[in-house]
Design brief:
Blueprint lengths: L3 H13 L18 H4 L6 H6 L1 E5 L14 H6 L3 H10 L20 H11 L3 E7 L26 H11 L3 E7 L6 H8 L6 H18 L3 E5 L6 H4 L1 H10 L8 E2 L31 E6 L19 H13 L2 E7 L9 H17 L20 E6 L2 E6 L8 E4 L12 E4 L10 E3 L3 E4 L12 E6 L9
Parallel strand pairs: 1-2, 1-7, 2-3, 3-4, 4-5, 6-7
Antiparallel strand pairs: 8-9, 9-14, 10-13, 11-14, 12-13
Length: 467
Amino acid sequence: MAGAGTFTLLLALSASSLATTVINKYEDTKYEPTWESLDSRPLPAWYDEAKFGIFLHWGVYSVPSFGSEWFWAQWANKEKKYLDYMEKYYPKDFTYQEFAKDFTAEFFDPKQWADLFAKSGAKYVVLTSKHHEGYTLWPSKYAYSWNAKDIGPHRDLVGELAEAVRANNLTFGLYHSLLEWFHPLYLADKASNFETQEFVDNKILPEMQELVNAYKPDVVWSDGDWESPDTYWKATEFLAWLYNESPVKDTVVVNDRWGKDIPCKHGGFFTCTDRYNPGTLQEHKWENAMTVDMASWGYRREAKLSDYFNVLDLIQSLASTVSCGGNLLLNIGPTKDGTIVPIFEERLTQLGQWLDINGEAIYGTSPWTYQNDSMTWGVWYTKKDTAVYAIVLHWTWSENILELASPLELFQDASTTVTMLGNEDDGNLPWKLGDTVSITFPDKATAKSEWAWVLKIEAKATLPNVV
């Protein structure tokens, strides 16, 4: 592997030889390169119906697998934890680039991964094609010597996973970082206060078009935008090309990370901040991107069991997110050799078991008038057609009787029925209307769902959509 100086020179030479622009002039196109025009594009329906996806953070940072996926930046910033780690285990002149040769992915089995994702109940998968370190998981001609084909596994990891994911009838998407911490062209643009755009013209725009044309992702999940405005990134020009001319123009969805003032204001769906979960109904479609490991997006060898969310935590995140109009994008970090460690496999499998029974209350639903119950804690609502679903996270009350305050209007008609998903063969559950509605649960030992329980409340008339 080349040293840091050689690596920097190679990047600079490769970038300087590229064309200075890849974005066409937009004449007579449906969407203009303005936020007003781009924001008028309807969000493709598949995304809202899917509700649940898997996020994967995988790259050279998976080799040290220590601290977080920001290892390189934190080490370069001389944070003590990282300096001590490197001093203890690596030679003094060791460079971050030297980690790449050990990003081997020798146990990476894309079919096995995709089978697990399908088993989890997820409907789409988003892979980090390139994180802030600049290393690409595909053989990009704009990342000479710093991609998974040239150094490390010597494989097209993006292409292999895309094929396997789609073979499982899941939708495939790609995360892509705009900035690269130590790319010389980016650093030069940054030094000019982003008055120059050499990095964008010669690296980022052609790279993103290459990625979309080669792999046709139906999610383009942008990140690394926070240091500079959307005009520096030429974000609206790229999105106009994506919506008008790209091979995924009719199906692709994008997020909101296209410039330092753009998140939560513009884009197909909003992510706003990492682990965004407002707990209230939002007017614009949004996504809760969160991690099973509470402290990191990438795999950490030093993580403790207490650092991981348990399955009920994850079900609660899914229920609250969907109830408030969002999608859950749940992140795991594979290892450098391409394995998904058992704790992640277990959590995804448990979610799949829950969704096998209760997915009717998640997929294709809409927010209801109320998102959670006004009296009983830990109850979240969704709706579909004539049914309201009450997702009950805790079964702690006495005599198996649940009291609910929010859905009283649904019980004004005696013909309203209540069943428990997975226990439909037991028939309708008894209910009684007073100041609250009292619903009698079956014996807990007979409940098919292990962690949270869903009541299907069916009224006569089709219920109106809230959003």
